[in-house]
C-alpha cells in the first residue's frame, strides 16, 4: 500500500496511508498546487500533475509502483536546524567525546538529530540507522586520542593524528552505510581508500599553516568524498568554493567570539553547509571541471 507525503510551508508532511491522504484532498489541505510524493515517483510533483490524483478524492489515490523513486533528476539538499537544538546537541556531543566511554552513544544520538533535519530530494524521512556498538572501538578510540598530547611523548600527537584519520575513515564508511529513507537503509557505500582519506586529512591539517589555504583543501576534499560515495544513479556533488568556505567561516568565527550569536550562527553555517551538497545526473557531473 502506497504512502504519501506533501509539502507545506517548506516542510515535509507524512507519511499518510491512502485513506488519510484521500481525506486531506477532500478537506482541501492538499490542493492542485501542493507538492506531493509517493513511492515510485522520480521526484516531488504538483498534485494536479499526477493523473487521477485529485479526481480520486472519493476513492483511493492511484497506486504508484513501490520500491522507492529511481535516483534520477536531483537538486540541492536542505537543512533546517533549530539554533538551540543544534547548539545543545553539539555541546553534549563534545562532552561525551571528552568522557570517552559515552562516545558511541552520543555520536549516534547526534547523527540521528542531524539527519532528521536534512531534506534530500526524492528521499523522504531521511535518517540514520547506525547503532552505538557497531564501531564502538573506532568512536571511543577517536575520543581517547584527543588526550595524546598529555602523554608527554614528543611524537605522540603526530602518531595520534594519523590514527585519528584512520578512525575518521572508518566512521565515515559507517555513516554512509547507515543512511536511511522511510526507515530503510539506502544502498550507499563509501569506496574511498583509507590511505587516500588519511592523505586528505593530513593535507587539511598542514594547510592551516597558510591561514586561508585550508578552505580550498576542504572544498576539494569534500568533492573527493562525494565522488567516492557509490550506490545511487545520481552523483553527489559539493558546490561550495574555497572562497565561500573561507569568508563564511571568518564571519562565523567573528560572530561566535561575541558569545550571544553562537546558536544562530551555528544554525546559519550548518544550514548553508548542507545546502552545498546536491544530487545531480552523472552526465552533468562528468562534464563539470572541478
Question: How are the secondary structure elements laid out?
Answer:
Layout: E1 4-8, E2 11-16, H1 18-26, E3 35-38, E4 45-46, E5 75-76, E6 78-79, H2 83-98, H3 103-116, E7 118-119, E8 126-128, H4 136-144, H5 156-177, E9 179-181, E10 184-185, E11 189-190, H6 194-207, H7 213-227, E12 229-230, E13 234-238, H8 242-256, H9 262-275, E14 277-281, H10 282-286
Describe the model.
By secondary structure, this protein is of the alpha+beta class. It has 2 domains: 4-51, no CATH class; 75-286, no CATH class. It is built from 10 helices and 14 strands. It has helices spanning 18-26, 83-98, 103-116, 136-144, 156-177, 194-207, 213-227, 242-256, 262-275, 282-286; strands at 4-8, 11-16, 35-38, 45-46, 75-76, 78-79, 118-119, 126-128, 179-181, 184-185, 189-190, 229-230, 234-238, 277-281. The chain has a 4-stranded antiparallel beta sheet. Strand 1 (4-8) and strand 2 (11-16) form a beta hairpin. Helix 2 (83-98) crosses helix 9, helix 6 packs antiparallel against helix 7 (213-227) and helix 7 (213-227) crosses helix 8 (242-256). It is elongated and about 75 Å long. The two termini are 43 Å apart. Residues 56-73 and 284-290 have low confidence and may be disordered. Residues 4-53 form the GYF domain. The chain crosses the membrane at residues 91-111, 162-180, 200-224, 245-266. Pfam families: GYF_2.
Radius of gyration: 22 Å
CA-based shape: elongated
Q: How many E strands?
A: 14
Unreliable runs: 56-73, 284-290
* Strand numbers in spatial order across the main sheet: 2-1-3-4
Order of helices and strands: EEHEEEEHHEEHHEEEHHEEHHEH
Structural class: alpha+beta
Domain GYF: 4-53
InterPro entries: GYF_2 (IPR025640)
Pfam families: GYF_2 (PF14237)
Protein name: DUF4339 domain-containing protein
